[in-house]
Amino acid sequence: MQTEPLFPLPEVRVLIGDSRELLANLPAESIQCCVTSPPYWGLRDYEHPAQIGAEPSPEQYVANLVEVFRGVWRALRKDGTLWLNIGDGYARNGGTGNHGPNAVVGNTRKLIQRRNCKVPNCWGLKDRDLMGLPWRVAFALQADGWILRSKITWVKRAAMPESVKNRPTNATEEIFLFAKSPKYYYDSSAVRESTGANLRNFWMLGPEGNGKGHPAAFPRELARRCILLGSRVGDTVLDPFAGSGTTGEVAQKLGRPAILIELNPQYSQIIERRISHVIREERRSCAEIGRPARQRFSGRLARYRRRATVAAQPAPLQ
Ligand SMILES: C[S@@+](CC[C@H](N)C(=O)[O-])C[C@H]1O[C@@H](n2cnc3c(N)ncnc32)[C@H](O)[C@@H]1O
Questions:
Q1: What domains does the chain contain, in order, with CATH numbers?
Q2: I need a surface site. Which of 34, 206, 229, 305 has the fewest CB within 10 A?
């Protein structure tokens, strides 16, 4: 198994726009592995009318995610997998200020449902009910044809502080492994427990200082495990909710080309910075081992930059 970066580095393509539209431009059955984390419902404001997570009801949120992953299904190879990290939330009435459902989160500028936060009128939800959104999404995807193969619990070493006194602090999130067909690519030798045993569905990860400038980046190690387990060197990896581009950065380091889709053009700069950093690091290590790499990598960097802006217009991919 090869896990070292290849020379030249594989390409990361960044498409700016709504995943529900842009996924249709990807060639069918061209992606081996999708690693992604959609926005929470009703929490952060990514400041775009087409953002997922700001729907008036969580039922619409689930329906929108089903639509996105239908697009992923089409683009995924028959033996491909979807690794879906998704967070939960509480149904609440009202609440403003620095705590509770309407608090400012991370560095997002606005609050969703400011001052008019209401318990959604569905699923029998009551004030302060945990909505169970990860499982509702998982069941909806199952009903849409996906095979649910695993539920991995990501235990956060540094959980977001909560001021609650009537329940334990949330410190976990789900990562679901879905397959398109019963026989799918999964390299169980790529990531093992330290004892050598098969990897367990319990990952203690973070914190990491990655994705600076994005409020909800997941740890590189999360992406690394999913990519190694779900793809080979050279296979294409997809993230339809790219954010700061963690999936792309890790895929590139692992020798996999990546396609990233992100709605908010501001984040493309963060992605570009991260990918440029990978390229610079690789160039440095090339120079250290005496390869004439400088020219090759400056060309790649320039091409990457051109693509990141050109890709703002949806165009069929070759
Ligand atoms: C939880 S963040 C992803 C963070 C990412 N895993 C990282 O490590 O940086 C979700 C992202 O989805 C984007 N998003 C929301 N709605 C979208 C849509 N309809 N199409 C594409 N991206 C969308 C948001 O702008 C946000 O950056």
A1: 12-310 (3.40.50.150)
A2: 305
